């Protein structure tokens, strides 16, 4: 068996990272790699990936419901309206990661997301304009960043976004289906490929 695969309790072969905890199985099978065009969901994942910086995804996933409650379900307009009082409230919330810089980044990035929506019609249209080309990816799970994640990271930073480095953006792209990074032989590689083939890429204004 490939060293990129693990066999789950149901006998199915999955990406090796799932073996860290059985809690990863539903996330791996139902979310990771399936293409997303919903702005709220995309914004949530960008925020959670920024919170993950320096931590494990296991930590973030375990707190995801707490993050959703604390950040108004990551509704862009609601988070953009957060005030200093909200920042103080969040810093006291033991259910999330109480990192002042990352909390401030989410509040800032919501405003920057509003600007992107006004410019391009949706956050999804902007995100999918950076879909990686097959030739820049190569073997699944061989990369932690790509030319496209570098380009998107650079542009977001130019637009004033925070905590959006190229590795963070690549992890976001993996999870939101901008590429199929399930390992060869993983039980979800074919379903994700089919979903990507059927997916209508959102177009800008």
UniProtKB/TrEMBL annotation:
Zn(2+) binds at residues 15, 28, 182, 186. Keywords: Metal-binding, Zinc. GO terms for biological process: base-excision repair. One of its GO terms (molecular function) is metal ion binding. It holds the Pfam family Adenine_glyco. This is 3-methyladenine DNA glycosylase. InterPro entries: Adenine_glyco, DNA-3mA_glycosylase, DNA_glycosylase. The keyword Phosphoprotein does not apply.
């Amino acid at each position: 068996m490939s060293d990129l695969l693990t066999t789950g309790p149901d006998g199915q072969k999955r990406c090796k990272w799932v073996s860290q905890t059985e809690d990863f199985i539903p996330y791996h099978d139902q979310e990771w790699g399936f293409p997303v065009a919903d702005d709220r969901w995309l914004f949530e994942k960008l925020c959670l990936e920024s919170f993950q910086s320096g931590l494990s995804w296991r930590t973030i996933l375990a707190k995801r419901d707490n993050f959703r409650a604390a950040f108004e379900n990551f509704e862009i307009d609601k988070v953009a309206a957060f005030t200093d009082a909200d920042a103080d409230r969040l810093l006291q919330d033991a259910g999330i990661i109480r990192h002042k810089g990352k909390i401030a980044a989410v509040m800032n990035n919501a405003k920057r997301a509003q600007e992107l929506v006004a410019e391009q019609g949706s956050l999804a249209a902007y995100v999918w304009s950076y879909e990686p080309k097959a030739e820049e990816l190569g073997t699944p799970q061989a990369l932690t960043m790509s030319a496209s994640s570098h380009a998107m990271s650079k542009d977001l930073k130019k637009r004033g976004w925070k905590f959006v480095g190229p590795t963070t953006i690549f992890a976001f792209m993996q999870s939101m289906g901008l590429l199929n990074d399930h390992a060869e032989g993983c039980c979800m590689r074919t379903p994700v490929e089919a979903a990507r083939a059927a997916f209508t890429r959102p177009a800008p204004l």
